[in-house]
C-alpha cells in the first residue's frame, strides 16, 4: 500500500513538472462559497459548465442587458446560458472571461444528482415514467381510433 501511495505522489510530481516545462497552466479552483461572494455589478462571477467566469467588465457590453447577468451572479448559470442558445461567437468570447473552475466537491453535476422534487422523494423517477407513459397512452388511443374508423368502413 505504501509503495502505491509513493508511486501516485511521484506521478503527480512528474505531471506537475511536465506541465511547467510545456507551459500548460493548471486551472485555479474556486469553491462555490468563493463564487457566491462575487454577485454585484462591480464584481460579478458565475459558473457555466463548472468553469468560473469573471464577467464584471462585460456587464455593459452584454447584448441581453446587465440584469440578465446580475440575476445569475454568484451561482450556477449553465441552464440559463444554454436555454438562451448562445452563438459560437458568444462561446468563444466567453473563454476570455474564464478565471478558473469549480472545485471538485462543488461541481454542478454533483449538486444536481441529489435534487428531489417536493412531491416525489425519488426525484426525477416520476418524470421518467411520465415521459414514456403519456406517449404510449396516446399511441394506444390513436390505434383504437384508427381501428374503429377503418373497421367501420369495411
TrEMBL record:
Subcellular location per the Swiss-Prot or TrEMBL entry: Endoplasmic reticulum membrane; Microsome membrane
Annotated Cytochrome b5 heme-binding domain residues: 27-103
Coiled-coil stretches noted in the UniProt entry, renumbered to this chain: none
GO CC, one annotated term: endoplasmic reticulum membrane
GO molecular function, one term: heme binding
Position of the signal peptide: none
Pfam families reported in the protein's UniProt record: Cyt-b5
UniProt KW tRNA-binding keyword: no
Family that this chain belongs to: Belongs to the cytochrome b5 family.
Membrane topology designation: Single-pass membrane protein
Record protein name field: Cytochrome b5
Key words of the record: Electron transport, Endoplasmic reticulum, Heme, Iron, Membrane, Metal-binding, Microsome, Transmembrane, Transmembrane helix, Transport
Amino acid at each position: 500500500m505504501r509503495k502505491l501511495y509513493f508511486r501516485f505522489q511521484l506521478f503527480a510530481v512528474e505531471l506537475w513538472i511536465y506541465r511547467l516545462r510545456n507551459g500548460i497552466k493548471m486551472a485555479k479552483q474556486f469553491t462555490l462559497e468563493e463564487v457566491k461572494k462575487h454577485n454585484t455589478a462591480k464584481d460579478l462571477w458565475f459558473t457555466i459548465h463548472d468553469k468560473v467566469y469573471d464577467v464584471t467588465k462585460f456587464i455593459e457590453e452584454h447584448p441581453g442587458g446587465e440584469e440578465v447577468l446580475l440575476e445569475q451572479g454568484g451561482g450556477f448559470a449553465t441552464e440559463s446560458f444554454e436555454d438562451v442558445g448562445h452563438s459560437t461567437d458568444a462561446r468563444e468570447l466567453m473563454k476570455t472571461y474564464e478565471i478558473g473552475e469549480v472545485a471538485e466537491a462543488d461541481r454542478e453535476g454533483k449538486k444536481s444528482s441529489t435534487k428531489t422534487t417536493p412531491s416525489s422523494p425519488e426525484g426525477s423517477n416520476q418524470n421518467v415514467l411520465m415521459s414514456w407513459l403519456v406517449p404510449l397512452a396516446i399511441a394506444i388511443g390513436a390505434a383504437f381510433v384508427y381501428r374503429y374508423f377503418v373497421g367501420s368502413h369495411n
